[in-house]
Amino acid sequence: MNTVKPIPAHRLPDLLKRLPKAELHMHIEGSLEPELMFALAARNGLSLPYADVAALKKAYVFGNLQEFLDVYHAGTQVLRTEQDFYDMTWAYLERAAADHVVHTEIFFDTQTHTGHGVDTDTVINGLHRACVDARSQLGISAGLILCFLRHLSQAEAFEALEQATPHLDKLLGVGLASSELGHPPEKFTEVFAKARQLGLRLVAHAGEEGPPAYIWSALDALKVERIDHGVQALKDPALVARLVREQIPLTVCPLSNLKLCVFPTLAQHNLGAMLQAGLVATVNSDDPAYFGGYINENFTQTFAALGLSSQHAYQLASNSFEASFIDASAKQAYQDRLAELFETFE
Ligand SMILES: [Zn+2]
């Protein structure tokens, strides 16, 4: 890791804002802002179980992951047409561009939507069209990662993968999301093996609320290349040693962890300790419309709470490119942009 010039604490918020970065853990359905949710409901002639935007926002208080998932799934009901999926994705991409995200690997699922009678083609085509437009109009590269819902069966995950197979050229990889506890990664061993055969990259949520054992099995049974969250890894020194040795990236989401009570306060978050241990941690927004902020908000609040420095900022941004699924030359181009910001930052 390069040593970078120190930047005074009062200049850090501006540095963090302008940092070129990749976002690797963001569920597109979790970027659906209340205002757009109401607009889509109106466009589709649907009603929401909340009187207005203010009433909906009041429901965004969660005691754990499951309480969040219940509210979140209610919000996805307004998504019906390809244009709805496009509009939601475009809104996120514009927001990400404003935060100096230069590359994003977007999570989505199809099982929620097929459960509402919306087919896989509608979902993927809407998301993909927004990603294509983002490259030309916003200068962001964007890829799509299909997440299986782990509270459902592996047979249902196979069905989702099969329905997505005609769109393989639009997909970067597969992931594993939704209720973690009681649904260990190994439940999905065969469907991940199938995805690997199809040439897809592999990631999984593990060690958010669940134990370090879930991180081990995500690596050994699913053979994932990246762990989403992974904050519980620090409870297991042998696991930390392995993650460091193999340079397995962890996509950490501090405001999500705070909102879902994984840590009681941001000051108690272990992001600083993860970096200290040599883990390839990154900062991401998870479900920004629900958790109180997009990626830059995650950076600024976490840096303030933990007293992190410009060196940490450099490392986190650099990690985000190394952890991404872009090719080596694109990685180098982004690393150069990052180094240039530090050289010219006043
Ligand atoms: Zn997530």
TrEMBL record:
Cell inner membrane is among the record's keywords: no
Main enzyme class: hydrolase
Active site, UniProt feature: 208 (proton donor)
InterPro entries from the UniProt entry: A_deaminase_dom, ADE, Ado/ade_deaminase, Metal_Hydrolase
E.C. no: 3.5.4.2
GO biological process, one term: adenine catabolic process
Catalytic activity: adenine + H2O + H(+) = hypoxanthine + NH4(+)
Cofactor(s) listed: Zn(2+)
Binding site for Zn(2+): 25, 27, 205, 286
KW Zinc (keyword) present: yes
Note describing how the cofactor binds: Binds 1 zinc ion per subunit.
Annotated site, Important for catalytic activity, chain positions: 229
Origin: domain of life: Bacteria
GO cellular component: cytosol
Keywords associated with the record: Hydrolase, Metal-binding, Nucleotide metabolism, Zinc
Similarity section: Belongs to the metallo-dependent hydrolases superfamily. Adenosine and AMP deaminases family. Adenine deaminase type 2 subfamily.
Protein name (Swiss-Prot/TrEMBL): Adenine deaminase
